[in-house]
Structure formats: structure tokens, C-alpha cells
Amino acid sequence: MYVHILGPLRATVDDRPVTLGGRRTQTVLAALALEADWAVSVDGLVEAVWGSCPPASARTQIRICVSTLRRAFALAGAPGTIETHSYGYRLRLGPHDLDAAVFESGMERSRLLAGSGRRAEAVLELRNALALWDGPVLAGQTSRALDPGIRRLEELRIRAIEERLELELALGRHGDVIGELLALTATYPFREQLHGQLMLALHLAGRTAEALAAYRRVRVTLVEELGIEPGPRLRDLERSILLGECLSA
């Protein structure tokens, strides 16, 4: 079985979709998938489905949801995927059976490749990992109890993007990433690393005035929105550009 959470929740067996049932059943699967291979308590599943105001029958309904998922997985050819533990349930998946796990493995391989100087291969590894994403994590799920796991993965996604762009710049591909960085800095106005990468890419492309303008924009955003100055890395980068120092990624 393969479970997709980097986008709308889906499950497939041999590339055939598994019918996952209604909203509550899907929320139970989402909560289990975010903690794949770890047991999730029944109380945790109750909170995921109903928040702080569960009905008296909540624990019984959770058992029904789990039974529904087990039946669907068994019919699709993947029996035994959900295990019962003393206080809850565990979604048993291998390292290649969850897109989020495959994504994180790709990030780890990329870092090993980059650390050994194989930057082009590291970029390719990150591109493949990022291609697994099909939208926001568990798009369409509204349970607030899932937010910590969702935020963790979303943070990993933007870090993977930043690491890929850092490698692209180190490979001399500054002209190729400017457009992407312009879009990313608009989407993530407080990510100083992205702004620094944009400044460096513009400067290396001979667009120094635009690089300095990019610094002024992020400084205004940080001061007006958060009441803070840019960090030392951005300030040092601006100073180096103003002084005409030789810069590289």
C-alpha cells in the first residue's frame, strides 16, 4: 500500500485507489499517517475527529472508522495495515509506502551527496523529492489536532526548496533561479534565506541595483510587520554588494 499525504489524502494498492470512506474515517487515517509506524492513542484520534467536544460515543465511532479502513485495505489487497495496540492503533507502513517518508529520505540523500561535493546529483535528488508534493499537506483536512504534523512537513518543504536553491547558486545557475526566487520571496516574505538568495542571484547576474532594492524591500517588511531589522547574514550581504566584493554562493 502507498499513502499520499503531501497533498490531498489518498491511498493506493498497486496503483489502484482505495476507497477511504467519509470525513471521520479519512481524518483517522490522516492522524495515523502523520505518525506512521507509531501507535496513536484512541484519545488522540478522538481529538483529531471532534476536537475538545467529542460525543459520548466517540471511542466507539473511532473503532468503527478503524474497522472501515481495515476492510477497505483488505479488499484492496493490503490486510494487516492497521495494528491494534494497548492504547490505540498503528499504521504499519514501510519506508517506501508513505510519500512523506520518501520525501524526507530524499532530503537526507541530497545532504549526503552535497556533503561529498556531488552538488548536481544533490539538486536532482531534491527535485525528485519535491515532485512528490501535490499541494498543501492533507489538503482539505480541517482538524486542528493535525496542525503540528502538517506544519512540520510544510517547514521541511520550504527548507528543501532553500537547500536546492543554495545548490543551484553554487553551481552557477543564478540566472535560472531569479524568477522562482521572486515568486518565493513574495509568498514567504519573512524567510530571510530566500531573500538573501534572491539578492545574491541578482548580483551575480549583473543586476546589482535590483539586488539592493530587494534588500530594501525585505528590510521594510521586517521593520514594519515584525519590528525587527534583518539578520546579520542579510546585512553582511548588502554591505558586500555595496562594497563590490567578489561574492559566490
Protein described:
- A hairpin with a 2-residue loop joins strand 2 and strand 3 (16-17).
- The model has no long low-confidence stretch (mean pLDDT 96).
- The protein has helices at residues 23-34, 42-50, 58-76, 99-115, 119-130, 147-170, 174-187, 192-204, 208-226, 232-243; strands at residues 2-4, 10-13, 16-17, 39-41, 82-84, 88-91.
- With 249 residues, it is mainly α.
- It contains ten helices and six strands.
- The chain is elongated.
- Helix 8 (192-204) packs parallel to helix 10 (232-243).
- It is 61% helix and 8% strand.
- The chain has a three-stranded antiparallel β-sheet with strand order 1-2-3, with no helix packed on it. Strands 4-6-5 form a three-stranded antiparallel β-sheet.
- It has two domains: 1-157, Winged helix-like DNA-binding domain superfamily/Winged helix DNA-binding domain (Arc Repressor Mutant, subunit A); 172-249, Serine Threonine Protein Phosphatase 5, Tetratricopeptide repeat (Alpha Horseshoe).
